[in-house]
């Protein structure tokens, strides 16, 4: 698994307002913002405000309120970005083999073009 939560990780700093981001959506327990290195015409990250290192940590330890808020936020963000009709992909890299770079749980939303088959 991943090491314990590092409060100096880049998304923690974004949540504290120490680093700017291009916001897409915000809820009580989540923030959505555009990826700094977009891999699709629309590439947004949705993160919980709570200190969770990975999707596994979030799923195992977040509160029901946080989990509901998070999934509502993912759907709302895709809708407000205009992706609902054409479709989109969500993805959460989790741990070493997935190449997770930022140790604060984040869901990627990709859209705005035909994305091809998932790899792998
Ligand atoms: P991971 O590989 O951990 O799933 O993805 C991390 C993502 O965070 C990458 O797509 C990367 O471009 C994005 N990212 C890293 N640093 C920043 C940043 O400072 N601001 C924003 N908006 N995105 C970032």
Automatic annotation (TrEMBL):
Residues 10-120 form the HIT domain. One of its GO terms (molecular function) is catalytic activity. A motif (Histidine triad motif) lies at residues 104-108. PROSITE patterns: HIT_1, HIT_2. The active site is at 106 (tele-amp-histidine intermediate). InterPro entries: Histidine_triad_CS, Histidine_triad_HIT, HIT-like, HIT-like_sf. PANTHER family: HISTIDINE TRIAD HIT PROTEIN (PTHR23089). This is Histidine triad nucleotide-binding protein. It comes from Plastoroseomonas arctica.
